[in-house]
Each structure stands twice: as structure tokens, then as C-alpha cells.
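[recover] target loaded
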């Protein structure tokens, strides 16, 4: 409960009250402090100094303890001893409180000063100028804090983007406070890629040189995947998994065309990376089908990904070698796509991938594909 102290005690203005007023900046250069007729009050933790919507008729100087500026259940600022609170709402006529002011310690002591006493004071102009300075300093401090929080948010966003893709992040935000996302059966394009004979290329290289090359060829794949609407799922050694979630209306042609465009761009870009006299060669497996998406792993560590037979099929397409071919002729192209995938392509693009082959894929059996 708020306890009003005996006003008579203030006629001599206790030194600690005077010290609080001076330290607050409210009475700088003011000759007659007693004329403000300050009223001390004591509060306990959780007591309201004022509530949102109350008429704004006074301000307070904190002598002891701290006061929270709250909007509903959210604390916006904490004001400490020797700070002024409630002053912003005094500007203008008929103003009401914007926020709740709540005592935050077991013992909080305030000095209350009525707006009418400020207006009637012989040095009212000086008092209002001091109040304006206090507000200005608070706004400057709030601006600095907002800028710091904005930079922190940008840093946090960059960290999140470094370890997850936008689609996975969106699903996690939908899950709210839960640890795991919901699981969905979705139709998706699945991409697997790998650098041919990468281990042979780097066996004699220094670790830093190997790391630099890995970073480069992942960058050369990630850029066209993302720019063409795809999402990076994971990096696995020198391999990469990506996906495109398809719209619920069943239309897949545009995204399938985009994924082929990304694959063609990535293959050309990776081929420009050389180790000695050797260029790197990328191979890509593309498939389309229904997958189960969500967070998978243990209770302590998990990752958003896609799983299911169609994911395995895309991985096997990327891994097809000459010895796996049981029907078809010619060299296996760098891009290997399932028959289901090719059926979704525009006629112009599908004509470029007309070499039909059949391969015996590990743990799957025979798969038909085009390259």
C-alpha cells in the first residue's frame, strides 16, 4: 500500500530528499525548492505508482528503490533512485498516463510533485526547461538502446540464417515456444550434389587450402540455389542437400525449371575452380515427390530436414556411376533427374535432358532417369 508521510517533516526538506531532487536534474538552478511542496510516499513491491489511463497530474522523483515502466505484462524500462518518472505525460493539457508505473523493490520511496505546483512556481519556466532536458536525455538513452538492440537483432538474424534456412525458420516460428516443429507431408523438389573425386583432389593439400576450396564450391552452389527460390538443407562433407517446397495447388513446373537453372549455374561455376591443372566437376541429382518435413534428432539436439523414400531416391540419382547402368548408352550427364521430375519441366528444358537411362540403385532397385 502507498503510505503518505507527514508533510510537516518536509518543511525543513530532509537532506536525502534534497539530494534526490538535486541529483535528478529537476531543480537545477532553482532557488526555492520548498515551494514545490513535494510529498513523500512509500510503496512496497508490486504497488502501482500510477496506472495506464490515469489523469497525468504529477511526477515523481525516486529517493529509494526502483520503478518499472510497464506496458501490460512487459517491462519497457527500469528507473532507479534519483531518476524522475511520470514527467513525459505532464506536457500538454488533459493528458493521461501512457504506461503503468510499478514499484519493483520491497521498499520504494518517492517524492511526488504536482503539475499545478510546477506551474505556480516563480521559476516555472526553468522547471519546465529542466523537465525538457530530462526527457531529452531519456529519449537519447532510449535511442542508443534501440540501436544496440537493432544491431543485436541483426547479429542474431545472421547467426540464425547461417545455421538454418528461411523455410525451416518460418516453421520454427510457427511452432512458438515448443522445442520441435510440427511434422508435415509435403510435395518437394529434392536436390543432392557432390564434387566428383574430391578426396583425390585434396589428399595432398594443406588443411587451410582444402577448407578454402570447400567454402568456394559450396558458395558457388548456394548462391544459385537461393536466388532460384531453393533452401539449403545441409552440407555433408563435400555434398549438399537442398529443397524447394511446392505449392499446394500441385503446380510444379516453374519451380522444377528454377531448380534445373540453379543446377546448370552451379555446375558452370564449380568448374571454374581449379586445383593445379584440374577443374572440379559437380554432379546433381534432382527428384520430386512427397516427403516428411520437420525437426528430427534427439531431445537435446535436432535439425529441420526432409526424410522419406523420395529423399533417398534423389540421393541415389546423384550417386549413379557407369557400372550401375543397366539400360541406356552414352556418358552420364552432370545433372541426373528422375522421370517424374522431367515430366514437370517445360518442353524447352525437358528437350535438353532426353537421354533416358536405367540404373540399379543401392537399396532401391531399378530407377529410370534422364540426363
Amino acid at each position: 500500500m502507498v503510505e503518505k508521510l507527514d508533510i510537516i517533516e518536509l518543511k525543513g526538506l530532509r537532506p536525502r530528499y534534497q539530494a534526490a531532487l538535486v541529483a535528478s536534474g529537476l531543480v537545477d538552478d532553482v532557488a526555492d525548492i520548498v515551494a514545490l511542496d513535494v510529498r513523500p510516499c512509500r510503496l512496497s513491491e508490486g504497488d502501482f505508482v500510477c496506472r495506464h489511463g490515469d489523469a497525468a497530474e504529477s511526477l515523481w522523483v525516486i529517493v529509494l528503490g526502483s520503478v518499472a515502466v510497464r506496458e501490460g505484462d512487459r517491462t519497457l524500462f527500469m528507473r532507479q533512485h534519483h531518476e524522475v518518472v511520470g514527467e513525459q505525460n505532464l506536457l500538454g493539457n488533459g493528458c493521461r498516463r501512457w504506461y503503468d508505473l510499478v514499484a519493483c523493490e520491497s521498499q520504494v520511496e518517492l517524492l511526488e510533485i504536482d503539475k499545478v505546483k510546477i506551474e505556480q512556481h516563480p521559476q516555472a519556466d526553468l522547471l519546465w526547461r529542466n523537465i525538457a532536458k530530462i526527457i531529452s536525455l531519456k529519449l537519447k538513452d532510449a535511442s542508443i538502446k534501440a540501436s544496440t538492440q537493432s544491431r543485436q537483432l541483426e547479429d542474431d538474424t545472421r547467426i540464425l540464417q547461417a545455421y538454418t534456412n528461411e523455410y525451416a525458420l518460418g516453421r520454427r516460428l510457427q511452432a512458438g515456444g515448443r522445442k520441435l516443429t510440427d511434422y508435415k507431408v509435403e510435395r518437394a523438389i529434392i536436390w543432392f550434389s557432390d564434387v566428383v573425386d574430391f578426396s583425390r583432389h585434396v589428399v595432398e593439400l594443406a588443411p587451410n587450402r582444402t577448407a578454402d576450396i570447400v567454402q568456394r564450391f559450396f558458395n558457388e552452389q548456394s548462391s544459385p540455389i537461393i536466388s532460384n527460390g531453393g533452401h539449403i538443407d545441409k552440407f555433408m562433407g563435400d555434398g549438399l542437400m537442398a529443397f524447394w517446397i511446392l505449392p499446394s495447388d500441385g503446380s510444379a513446373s516453374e519451380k522444377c525449371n528454377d531448380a534445373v537453372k540453379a543446377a546448370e549455374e552451379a555446375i558452370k561455376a564449380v568448374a571454374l575452380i581449379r586445383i593445379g591443372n584440374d577443374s572440379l566437376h559437380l554432379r546433381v541429382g534432382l527428384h520430386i515427390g512427397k516427403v516428411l518435413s520437420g525437426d528430427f534428432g534427439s531431445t537435446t539436439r535436432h535439425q529441420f530436414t526432409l526424410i522419406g523414400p523420395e529423399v533417398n531416391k534423389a540421393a541415389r540419382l546423384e550417386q549413379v556411376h557407369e557400372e550401375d547402368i543397366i539400360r541406356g548408352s552414352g556418358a552420364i550427364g552432370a545433372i541426373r533427374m528422375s522421370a517424374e521430375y522431367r515430366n514437370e519441366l517445360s518442353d524447352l528444358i525437358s528437350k535438353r535432358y532426353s537421354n533416358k537411362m536405367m540404373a540399379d540403385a543401392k537399396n532401391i532397385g531399378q530407377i529410370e532417369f534422364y540426363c
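[recover] notes: Confidence is low (pLDDT under 50) at residues 1-11.
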